[in-house]
Design brief:
The protein has 445 residues and is α/β, with parallel strands linked by helices. It contains 13 helices and 19 strands. It folds into two domains: 2-55 and 363-421, Urease, subunit C, domain 1; 57-357, TIM Barrel (Alpha-Beta Barrel). Helix 1 (82-96) packs across helix 13 (423-443) and helix 10 (320-333) packs across helix 11 (340-357). The protein binds zinc ion.
Length: 445
């Protein structure tokens, strides 16, 4: 049992800031929150870091496979459009990944996430020359670091029919193996895995009708939802109308793929009718503003029309406060009327996805019965921090540099700014692996 003593609770949305309280944690859960609880549990270990504690931050769309692309020194031809960017850069990167490269991409991505205050990352993985077992390799990063996650393999036709079938197979294998592992854990009374499975697909323009049918089947057999890019660029929306004679959302809905476990990433070129349909089906829209700016695909002006928007980074680390700030400032720049509280609400909503994928567990509040996924902040602002101005602090003050500790399921991943795993070893090994990755990318030219 652990008592976190004398900390102020910081809920980003709905905003609230408490007086100093104690949080009692047993196993993976918060069992009590209140004043002076360390007196009631004198035998418990006490941690009194001061500052603020918030529910752990959730990154709702990421690609750890691109973790070793930072500072990339490979000759990449200039691109005229988004599809060329995929061909020249991202699809060359993912084809170059082998077992060790997937492993170290996951380890370094997970390590950085917990230092940024993220406690959960929803990942979308691709490694076309290393598909079978790739989600297990990726998972090693989550397990080693102690990061929660929802993993999937991005099924696509772009590497032939066998590639598509292997993607389907990997999604199904990983999900069913997790079901078995959970059953065993419950039987033995040991902690359940920190990771869950979604069913991944790249994007509608690389998913044929046959592959779509296979995705529908595997969603059914595993009870999971689809995690897919859609209309990240206009090309995807146009292709859907040209080849399939339907808007993307209507095509996915006809296949019965839209529901409360569905995550659509980007969704820039989705019509108002499609947004209405997605809202009816309770679909999550993962907004990735930094990635959209970087890829020059445009701005999602309709972000305010979505009922369930969440925030992702699309591979640009897992610093969610930074992503929320970019989301806010880009929105202001584009003439939008939303205030920062809307973007903190998007960040908070990632917890709802966790509740969809980890049935029976509660996420996103510091209250008895919730999972002890927590972010600790050393934030000591020069102006009052109150519920009424929390969004202003979010936009103009709070940042990941104030993250002191990160806890997932009652266990510290980072404590007092020190990793509870071999972060230095992971970084050093990753730099070695990166040399190999970049050479492999050169060789793929
Ligand atoms: Zn993405």
């Amino acid at each position: 049992m652990l008592v976190i003593s004398g900390v102020r609770l910081l809920h980003l949305y709905p905003p609230s800031v408490s007086d100093p309280v104690d949080i009692v944690i047993e196993g993976s859960k918060i069992i009590k929150v209140g004043q002076d609880l360390h007196l009631i549990y004198p035998e418990a270990e006490v941690y009194a870091p001061g500052g603020y504690v918030s529910p752990g931050l959730v990154c709702s769309h990421n690609h750890f496979y691109s973790a070793l692309a930072r500072g990339l020194m490979v000759a990449i031809a200039p691109s005229k459009d988004f599809v060329q960017q995929l061909e020249h850069l991202w699809w060359r990167l993912d084809r170059a990944l082998d077992e060790d490269l997937v492993r170290y991409s996951g380890l370094s991505g997970a390590s950085e996430a917990v230092f940024s205050g993220a406690t959960s990352v929803i990942d979308h993985h691709a490694s076309p020359n290393c598909i079978d077992g790739s989600l297990d390799l990726l998972r090693e990063g989550f397990d080693t670091v102690g990061l929660r996650g929802i993993l999937c393999y991005e099924t696509t036709d772009r590497n032939g029919l066998e590639g598509a079938a292997a993607g389907i197979r990997e999604n199904e294998r990983f999900a069913l193996a997790l079901d078995e592992e959970k059953r065993e854990a419950r039987k033995k009374g040991i902690p359940e895995p920190l990771v869950e499975a979604a069913i991944g697909a790249h994007a509608p323009f690389t998913v044929s009708e046959d592959t779509l049918d296979a995705l529908v089947q595997v969603c059914k057999t595993t009870g999971r939802g689809l995690h897919i890019h859609a209309a990240e660029d206009k090309f995807d929306a146009v292709d859907s109308r040209y080849r399939f004679h339907q808007d993307i959302a209507f095509r996915l809905d006809e296949a019965n793929l839209l529901g409360p476990k569905t995550i659509i990433a980007h969704g820039l070129f989705i019509s108002p009718e499609e947004i209405e349909l997605c809202n009816e089906r309770q679909v999550y829209l993962a907004h990735n503003p930094r990635s959209n700016m970087n890829n020059q695909v445009g701005y999602n002006h309709a972000i305010g029309a979505w009922k369930r928007p969440v925030l992702g980074t699309d591979g640009i680390g897992s610093d969610m406060i930074e992503e929320a700030k970019f989301a806010f400032f880009k929105h202001r720049d584009a003439g939008g009327s939303l205030w920062m509280d809307s973007f903190l609400a998007m960040l908070q909503r990632g917890n709802e996805i966790l509740e969809q994928y980890f049935p029976g567990k509660r996420f996103g509040r510091i209250e008895a019965g919730y999972e002890a996924d927590l972010t600790f902040w050393d934030y000591d602002p020069p102006t009052p921090l109150l519920a009424a101005n929390l969004a202003g602090h979010g936009a103009f003050g709070l940042s990941s540099r104030y993250v002191r500790s990160t806890m997932v399921a009652g266990r510290f991943a980072v404590k007092d700014r020190r990793a509870c795993f071999d972060a230095e070893g992971i970084a050093a090994q990753s730099r070695e692996q990166t040399k190999r990755l970049w050479q492999r990318m050169e060789d793929l030219r």
